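Posting here for the record, re: phosphoric acid mono(formamide)ester.
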Amino acid sequence: MKHLISLHHLKIEDIENILNLSEKLKKQQKEGTSHQILSGKTLGMIFSKSSTRTRVSFETGMYQLGGYPLFLSSSDIQLGRGESIYDTAQVLSRYIDGIMIRTFKHSDVEELAKYGSIPVINGLTDLMHPCQILADLFTIYEYKKTLKGLKLAYVGDGNNIANSLLHGCAKTGMDVYIASPKDYQCDEKIVSEAKEDAKVSGSKVVLTDDPVEAVANADVVYTDTWISMGQESEKNERIKIFMPYQINANLFSKAKEDAIFLHCLPAYRGYEVTEDIIDGPNSVIFDEAENRLHVQKAIMALLMDNKK
Ligand code: CP
Ligand code: NVA
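Prediction output follows.
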């Protein structure tokens, strides 16, 4: 594993290594045991979109690992004024040890990895959000003690979260059902990649426009905002189209009794999910958010610790 750009590129062993190391680092952090395995290393963090969780968890995580996190807002660096990805990748590779990038075009992240000589971590693109889904898999594992054979239902927009869930579930042997309105389904190429992986792991990949079909008997119920970053002008239209896809008590009651509710956050209560569900007893959203820290520390350690 040289970069973390798409979960489709990872082997199942890579995912297992990340989850195992996440568990170890979480324990060490809770016990107060020092784990400064990246001392002397610098992570550049390029942000072209807003963030609370990704920024704070990477920044704090790098600090806890003994390294230095460098926040680079795209509006402050020359990339935002039109400097090429090629030159940016070449120059940053001479200064720092890894790059995390959150941006719009997925191909920009791939180019950064192609032209630089240091590990690149995808901190969200319009197409994918692999770090989030690794934290989700870790959270599911903590609650359910397994991944293989579980059913995950995602109801809502076929966006970056849904795309990476397809990859993550198919790799790890979870059945994944995505319910979205007809014109808002997941990326076709990602669906076919997930189907390929599902053949290997023995899981199911189902795309539907029926939320009840998706949620029926699910172990995990997941949703995300209907209006992703960059889609603000479509807000009114999207709210009308997505209302039948709201996770509320009626829809959630179709899942297993011990189903957990996940949301990558930020959430908009009363839209994609009602308050009684997101703040109810089955919701594990803040464990999920916390796990971003532990899982991303594992990712950074595996990519950037060349002593291992
Ligand atoms: N879930 C997530 O990536 O949150 P932020 O946008 O706050 O980073
Ligand atoms: N789909 C959302 C995820 C935010 C973490 C977005 O792209 O805005």
